[in-house]
Amino acid sequence: MLAVFLKEFNGFLNSLIAYIVIGVFLTSLGLLMWVFPDSSILEYGYSDMSTLFNLGPYVFMFLIPAITMKFFAEEKRTGTAELLFTKPITYFQVILGKYFAGLALVILAILPTLLSFYSVYVLGNPVGNLDIPGTAGSYLGLILVGAAFVAIGVFASAITENQVVSFVIAVFLSFLFFSGFDSLSTIDVWGNMALYLNHLGMLSHYSSLSRGLIDLADVIYFISVATVMLLFTKLILDARKW
């Protein structure tokens, strides 16, 4: 697994994709937080980072599939899949190696946002006038959302050899899991089931973490989503006998 992780992670760092993804993520959120008047912290005058945490998952929704779409699709297209799976390594070790490489890149993209946290902390009146527990919970939530999106992207890449199709499937599933169930639950046809439908999605769990309420049930939810998607990926690989 470690060899696969290092191969994929070094592959990211030796190509433009990692720098493009991180650059787009940081630039877009930086503009939204500090420049665009409708969402700028400097305009509305409150020392919080809600712009980052409200919009971050939606940016991830497109950027993470761009990272993961080549994981298995590229291996199959180039014919290296057969070579990879002839090594003394299991399918699940390959899956986990690729998964953790993608997750490491996501965390690497999030780390520079700590500069924004420091800036908001210093600019507060008085200095430090910032909801630290809520911010910590939001960072944890953003990492967990990213972890779930990477697992969804790995699954989408295993389904098809076409990277564009993999990207589209991953974006759709990420949207469905993050806010799709929440939107569906507002339709007035579910009755008492609406609350359960809402809790199937990530948004309610992410919102809870963003308030600084680090409930183990919310953490387990995200880990469960990632685990289920990775298990489905293994089933796909087993069925296709790569």
Q: How many β-strand stretches?
A: 0
Q: What is the domain tally?
A: 1
Mean pLDDT: 84
Major sheet details: none
Give the amount of beta strand, in percent: under 5%
N-to-C span: 17 Å
SSE ordering? HHHHHHHHHHHHH
Q: Write down the Rg.
A: 19 Å
- Unreliably modeled segments: none
How many helices? The count is 13
Helix content: over 70%
- What gross morphology would you assign? globular
Structure summarized in a few sentences:
This protein is mostly helical and 242 residues long. It has one domain. It is built from 13 helices and no strands.
Give an overview of the whole structure.
By secondary structure, the chain is mainly α. The chain has one domain (2-240). It is built from 13 helices and no strands.
Write the layout of secondary structure elements.
Blueprint: H1 2-13, H2 16-34, H3 41-44, H4 50-68, H5 73-78, H6 80-85, H7 91-110, H8 114-123, H9 132-159, H10 163-185, H11 194-200, H12 202-210, H13 216-240
Helix pairs in contact: 1-7, 2-4, 2-7, 4-9, 4-10, 7-9, 7-13, 9-10, 9-12, 9-13, 10-11, 12-13
Task: Summarize this structure as a short list of keywords or feature phrases.
single chain; 242 residues; mainly alpha; globular
